[in-house]
Amino acid sequence: MKKLFSALKKIQIKQILTAFVLGTLLFVTQACSSVSAKSPDSTYEGGMNQYSDVDPRSKGAEAAAKMKAKGLKDNAEVNEIDQTGSLTGNTRRTLDKKAENLEDLGKNLKESGKYAADKVQDKAENFAEGTKRGVKNIKENTSNALDSITNAAGDTAEDAKLSTQRAAQDAKLGTQRAAEDASNAVQRTLRNAVD
Question: Which residues of the chain are under the pLDDT cut of 50?
Fold first, then answer.
C-alpha cells in the first residue's frame, strides 16, 4: 500500500489533467467527424451499380464544351460564302491574310532562287579558275621535269665521258708501268746473269 501511495505521489496532477483533456478531445473529434458523412444519392441513372457513369464534378466542363462547340459551329456558318456570292468579313480577312502570306512566300522563293543562282555562278567561276591554275601547274611541273631529265642525261653523258677518259688514262698508265716493270725485270735478270 505504501508503494501505491508513493507511486501516486510521484504522478503529478498536471499530467493526469493533460491525459484526461487529450482523451476527451480525441473522443469528441471522432464522434463529430462521423456525423458529417454524406449518404449517397439513391437515384438510378443506368450506370454501373445503378449510378451514373459521368463524374458529377464534370457537369460544368460538359456544359462548357457544348457551348464552345456551338460557338465554333456558329462561327463556321458565318464564315461561309452566302448564296449571293459575297464573302463575309471574317472570310475576306482570312483570304486577304492568306494572299499576303502567299505573296511573301513568292518573294522569299524568288530571293532564294537568286541567291542559289549567285552561289552556283560563284562556284562555277571558282571551279574554272581552279582548273586553269591546275593546268598551269601541270605545264610548269612537266617543263621542270623535262629540264631535270635533260640535265640529268647531260650530266650522265658527261660523267660517262669523264669516266671513260680516266679509265683510258689509267689503262695507259698501267700499261706503261707494266712495260717499265717488265723492262726493269729483264734488266735485273741480265745484270744477275752477267754478274
Answer: 83-84
